[in-house]
Automatic annotation (TrEMBL):
Protein name: DUF465 domain-containing protein
Keyword Coiled coil tagged: yes
Coiled-coil region list: 7-55
Keywords: Coiled coil
Length: 66
């Protein structure tokens, strides 16, 4: 799997967790622990997306300096 396709897959999963979190927030019976778990998943995905974007952008930035 290329970095770009992996990045796209992570972004898709991030959007899905975001939608799931919004639905859970609207449900008064949703336990706080469930909301916390969804928030944690969303943050982990965001961190991984950021890390991959930096990996992709770093070689591009370095090559533009030369």
């Amino acid at each position: 799997m290329s970095v770009q396709s992996h990045l796209s897959e992570l972004e898709k999963r991030h959007r899905a967790v975001e939608r799931e979190l919004e639905v859970a927030r609207r449900q008064p019976a949703t336990p706080d622990v469930a909301l916390s778990e969804l928030k944690r998943k969303k943050l982990q995905l965001k961190d991984e997306i950021t890390r991959l974007r930096q990996q992709v952008d770093a070689p591009l930035a370095a090559s533009s300096l030369h």
